């Protein structure tokens, strides 16, 4: 059975990439929405649920996008407002010198060769309009100054290319002025949203999250079922019955993970890891059904939507009376928690500075936001010898680690996950240096683009990541790609299937669960995936 | 303005650097002066017209040095047909004997340090 | 297209001053009025642009982290590429501004059969950019010998250093040679690399041609068509002392040089050249990654419509009750 949609070009075909741009200038080339490379529009019922403007049914491939009559003024007013609200926006519109250093750093450009996927040109799509309406040079010199009028064609181009950027911020690492295309894409999408140009894959999760607390729309009883099921399954594997408190008032710690962790595979094995770990260290914690989502598709929609969805974390921490919050393996969730949450919904003065109840370590780096990353937490446990680990139980895995964009380029979370992996796995191999840490390549499906209709573009965008995995797969027989991001876990498996068949995808706490020697456990016959441990009989459990 | 303090300080420093010549001029306080190279001679003409000498004497001296030291030629036929020995000490300094009052006038003014005196002994009055 | 437009723009500029000086004898205009106007435009325009940026707040701390964060004491924090303190930020900014740290990371993509992607060594852009900016600075600073009296020792020392190898007479300035090479490289890569040509605007070629013309006229004056530098300094000092005068006998080449530099100064604040000021304000670089340590405030943080727990419980109370989940209201 294949997850690859029919009609998708074969990898050999996709790998024929032409980087030479056309002769004709980019300003005059109207966008072509090619099947497999664009996202479907948002359904009106979800738009309405979130009170978003211009809710309607429409189709991007049809000529009429059913824009409101004053769409142009709305966008220009929106630009004006954002120019006064975001220094980043005005600055990034003004100071680019078009040196081109960013050009071949974007995974979508690398995979597609489409010049408008060069970060500089993606920004120029917006900059050209900025020049036309907000700068003297553009008003006087027009085309010569690189200005062009905002038309419906320009709007369509924005829709196509701002939903062809995963906001991974790789280009921003190389830019001599730190111009951040994620910022430009985020604001570009905000502008599109003002006239009702949203994609389905961001708005439906947002609406679900707003209502039920999580992107998948899992209701409280469904959430409880999932967790209870995981508790049963963990008992089958380990012989240990764990507690998994939900909505428990007065717990010390509120734990928030991305919803895919309790609903999708291979995320699920990571969930087993959390449950096993928290039981083993006797953590006084609780899950929440109301704050049952770590991720925040608001980040892919608008700053306002980030705040609307994120508000639940602090609100629930306050209601439950916990001391601090622990966050699971999720990428963009951590961009929001680290760079937006405290500013938007803080100050979290009702919480306490996080202290590990097991090791006594004070998390100085989280003293204001009061939320700790699970790998920060676990690496501290391991460093202080609080866990009994048997890494040989992961010997069937030959691992590598994919730095997810946001923990990498918004936090700089590099060593903590590696320390955990190296403590629980005997076989760990790094991908080439230009493809990891701050240079890491996106999965190609983040920022709301991980939908089926966009499949070809996802495979293109994922090529650089897959290629680096292929390298370690061929050189070191790596058979699992570890990551700390729910979108990665959802989209990398099919990317591997497409480009590097035979490589699985997993979470770090899945590996922790495999290696964790639990008090009162039965002899471990299988790993968290239910795969038999080959060398089970050769080993002696201590 | 946001971050106004830091930005204003930065701007002040920048404008200060950019306008350095203006306030340096005010601070030095001396009157504007043009150099007045002093010539002690009865001769009416130099080895080349004044305009040429003002802009290009260094090129001529350089040429003279090469001709004398490398090719052993010593005689220079000037634009007006007169012959001169190609020599800084014996020809030039006959009419312009005082380095301080002649050479240094312009050279100090525009901040150019010639390397004539790397080899030639500076006239006594410089000391 | 953009390249041609820019080239002719610079040619026209040179023609204007040539005709203006040689035919119309507008020496006072080109020697005094335009330079003053250009300086005023530069300073006022620069301040204006910075103030415009400064008037927009930085609502979120969006540092781009390029190294290990500060977390556990036993993990080494990369203080320059991921600073968490002011000292670290200053260090990061110094590296960025003085050494172009980010550009130094540059690589060149190569797609080989397989497909196999390779990221090749590519420091030429960094090198050319760096030596271009540094030699420009050296050139600007050593020009101060025309604007100061007495000439400060440091400026003379810099000049001596720049002419260290004493090649030719007047001795060749290294900065002249380097900037010509760098500008040529930057221009050639713009026209020869298809992707870069595709993204280039007239506004990208214009400064290159302008600076090339500027350097060329300077080089001609120093090494080939020698001009009366004493008279030029008299003019410069007159400007500096606000007692402008135009001495006789200055070659038209000087007026071309002065006019091009005036155009550069006046054009500066209204162009991408403002990256000089902008780089200091870039929020992805000039903010410490101390997000979870210290709260950053957003001046326009406004209340939004949220879905409260009460609303949530009201909707799902029966289901929660049936599942045995604790409730606020029974």
Automatic annotation (TrEMBL), chain A:
* Alphabetized PROSITE patterns for the sequence: 4FE4S_FER_1, 4FE4S_FER_2
Please provide the record's keywords in A-Z order: 4Fe-4S, Electron transport, Iron, Iron-sulfur, Metal-binding, Transport
User: Which is an annotated Pfam family here?
Assistant: Fer4_8
Q: Which residues form the 4Fe-4S ferredoxin-type domain?
A: 87-116, 156-185
Signal peptide feature range: none
Start and end residues of each stretch annotated as Disordered: 523-542
InterPro entries, per the entry: 4Fe4S_Fe-S-bd, 4Fe4S_Fe_S_CS, Helical_ferredxn
- MF term (GO), any: metal ion binding
What PANTHER family does the database record attribute to this sequence?
FUMARATE REDUCTASE IRON-SULFUR SUBUNIT, HETERODISULFIDE REDUCTASE
NCBIfam families with a match to the protein in the record: DsrK
Instruction: Return the protein name.
Output: (Fe-S)-binding protein
Q: Which organism is it from?
A: Candidatus Abyssobacteria bacterium SURF_17
TrEMBL record, chain B:
The record's InterPro entries line, in alphabetical order, gives: DsrJ, Multihaem_cyt_sf
Q: Which keywords describe this protein according to UniProt?
A: Membrane, Transmembrane, Transmembrane helix
Q: What is the name listed in the Swiss-Prot or TrEMBL entry for this protein?
A: Cytochrome C
Top-rank taxon: Bacteria
Membrane-crossing residue ranges in chain numbering: 6-24
From TrEMBL, chain C:
Going by the UniProt record, its keywords in alphabetical order are: Cell membrane, Electron transport, Membrane, Oxidoreductase, Transmembrane, Transmembrane helix, Transport
One GO BP annotation here? anaerobic electron transport chain
Which cell locations does it reside in? Cell membrane
> What residues form the membrane-spanning segments?
33-52, 124-144, 164-188, 208-225, 252-270
Molecular-function annotations in GO: electron transfer activity; heme binding; nitrate reductase activity
Keyword Transport appears in the UniProt entry: yes
Gene Ontology CC entries for this record: plasma membrane
Which protein, by its recorded name, is this? Answer: Menaquinol oxidoreductase
